Structure formats: structure tokens, C-alpha cells
Amino acid sequence: MQPTEMRRSTAVDGFRLAYDDHRPDGSPEIAAAVLLHGWPGDRRDFREVVPLLAGRCRVVVPDLRGFGESEMPQGTSPADYAAVAQARSVLGLIEELQLGPAVIAGYDVGSRIAQGAARARPDLVRALVVSPPLPGAGDRVLSPDAQREFWYQAFHRLELAEQLLDGNRAAVRSYLEHLWTHWSGPDYVPAPAELDRLADVYARPGAFVASINWYRSGSGTVAMSLAERPPAPSERIAVPTTVLWQEHDPLFPRAWSDRLDDYFADVQVRSLDGVGHFTPLEAPGEFADAVLERI
């Protein structure tokens, strides 16, 4: 693999994405995978996956709008961080680097954005490899068990979230540790040093609010699940899709995978036993294998 250093994309809607570009030596035309991180993470969510793809494909890993080292213009609104807007930046990066059609793989926020990209520009997407969230939850997201887990999405819409957390490293560190620990599977323990690094990233003034603009835009699971309706068969996501559904994700029970055929024309669902929410870190081998199968 050629050595990589962080780069920034050409601006789309004023946003420049920071990204890493891992290219096999002497293979300029090799197929590409674009890996999309989740909340509360950044492009380092794929630090265990990238080495497994080394030499097999070109791997591009961006920080999404409002995350990590990506740049944002002044005067943005929550709508600029919604799934459709985020997908525009990802598709712009694919076009800029001439990657298409590329495999887009993601989990959490990255999963929603990958799906949006496939709807908008299927010509640029070879296949999807995604973990929840996925469509089909419907009003089950309002069940008592689900609401005990999704409280944070309503909290993120409150000004109180900004007052308590934005720019407060100690509070951000505690908040991130709770979520990473609670959402992880029983055999995964988030590294304290990595939580420290993420706390530094999310505690910069304005950074926490930028990250939760995803939820303030209405792109969180609760808002999207209540608004979704099965599309006509001709409007289902057409690109081949692999879904990796975890056993121990408290946010997304496996029972919610029963309606995927209503939203995808060609979907395969694989169960990840023993795995929690953070698929690329808890099951990097399975994640990388699924990507390579679609290259």
C-alpha cells in the first residue's frame, strides 16, 4: 500500500471532508471501498478494517460533515448535516477521486449515509455493506424497550445538550465512555486511550454541536423510522446490499430485520453473534470479508 496522509476534499456545499486514501502500489484502476463511520466516532473507527483490505482494493475513509478533522463553513444549519446532505459530500468525494462505482460500507450514521448515496447515485455505487440503522423499524421504535435506549436522540435536540457538553472535555469524556461501553458487545472493551482521543476531538468548541446536528436535522433513527414508508418496488435500493446485523446492539434488535425486502431489491442479511453496535471494531474480519466479497 502507498503511504497515506490526511487530505481534504474539494468543497461540496462549503464542506471539505478530511479523508485517508490507501492505494495499493501500482494499481491505479483497482476497485475502491469507501468506509463511513458512526456517531460518536470518526474515521479511526476503521483502524482495524483498513489493514485487512490492504492490497486488495483502494480504501478511502473520510470524516463526515461535522466530525473529526473535516472543515465546515460558517453559518450552517442542522439541515446541512442531514443524511441527504451528507451523501452529497460522499458522492462528491467519489467523483473527485474517480472511485466509482465503489463499495460503500458503513455503520450507524455511516449506514444511513451509504443508503442515501445508493438512492441518489446508484451509478457510483457498486454495492453496500452496512450495519444498522436500517429501514423497517417503523413504530416499534416507540416501544418501551426501544425508548429506554433512544433517549439520547431527544436529548440531542435540546439546547441543554449544548450547554452541558459542548466544549466541556470532562463531561464529553464521561458521556462518550457511557455510550461506547453500553453499546458494545460483552467481549469488547473500548480502549481508554482511544476514548481520550475521541474526547479531545469532540470537546473542541462547537464540535459536539456539529456532531449532533445529525439528530437535529431529523436524521436519527426515531425520526426516520416514524416517517418511513415502504417504497414502490421500482424505488427500492437497487444496488446489491450486505447487512451485518449484530447480536448485542441494544439499539437495534434483530427482530427489526424482518422488513428489509420492502426497501432493498437485493439484500443479504448476516448475523454477527457476540457483537455489539461498533461493527468495524468488534468484528473487523467479518466486516472486511463482506467488503471484499462485493469488490
UniProtKB/TrEMBL annotation:
Gene Ontology molecular function: any one: hydrolase activity
Superkingdom classification of source: Bacteria
Species of provenance: Pseudonocardia alaniniphila
UniProt cross-references to SUPFAM superfamilies, sorted A to Z: alpha/beta-Hydrolases (SSF53474)
UniProt keyword annotations, A-Z: Hydrolase
Name used for this protein in its record: Alpha/beta hydrolase
Keyword Hydrolase in record: yes
Domain spans labelled AB hydrolase-1: 34-284
Pfam families the record matches: Abhydrolase_1 (PF00561)
